[in-house]
Amino acid sequence: QEQLVESGGGLVQAGGSLRLSCTGSGRTFSMYAMGWFRQAPGKEREFVASITWSGGSTAYANPVKDRFSISRDNAKSTAYLQMNSLKSEDTAVYYCAADSYAYRRVAPGPSDFRSWGQGTQVTVSS
């Protein structure tokens, strides 16, 4: 599986934007759906967004719908999470992960993801 590294986190003012990147080191990146998750202090890790292996379909958690956008560039083995209109509630460590099943046609559930990255901190000030 892919070795994943997240980057792009930081401190941003509420209402601002941030773009996270997740880069895989292997050559099989394009075979798997990718997902973004986040974990706030004292809370469980939660699903944020996902994108199919081809990039043809996306899914979002309700709290981020219409604000976040997931995309991927398989030629660069990178997935992105564009975050707009950020709120203080978005503060968390953000993780990316790859699906455990290649070329999945059915949207994967949160438990299907593997190969978690180290995470990148996103802090949104009020």
Category from helices, strands and their pairing: mainly beta
The termini sit apart by 38 Å
- Rg over CA atoms, rounded to whole Å, is 13 Å
Number of helices: 0
Biggest β-sheet, characterized? 7 strands, mixed
Number of strands: 11
What is the overall shape? globular
Spans where pLDDT lies below 50 across 5 or more residues: none
Mean residue pLDDT: 94
Order of helices and strands: EEEEEEEEEEE
Provide structural commentary.
The chain is mainly beta. It is 0% helix and 46% strand. It contains no helices and eleven strands. Strands 2, 4, 5, 6, 9, 10 and 11 form a seven-stranded mixed beta sheet that branches. The radius of gyration is 13 Å and the shape is globular.
Tell me the layout of helices and strands:
Elements: E1 4-7, E2 10-13, E3 18-24, E4 34-39, E5 46-51, E6 58-60, E7 68-73, E8 78-83, E9 92-99, E10 113-114, E11 120-125
Labels describing this entry:
11 strands, mainly beta, 126 residues, 4-stranded antiparallel beta sheet, 0% helix, single chain, globular
Structure described in brief:
By secondary structure, the chain is mainly β. The chain has strands at 4-7, 10-13, 18-24, 34-39, 46-51, 58-60, 68-73, 78-83, 92-99, 113-114, 120-125.
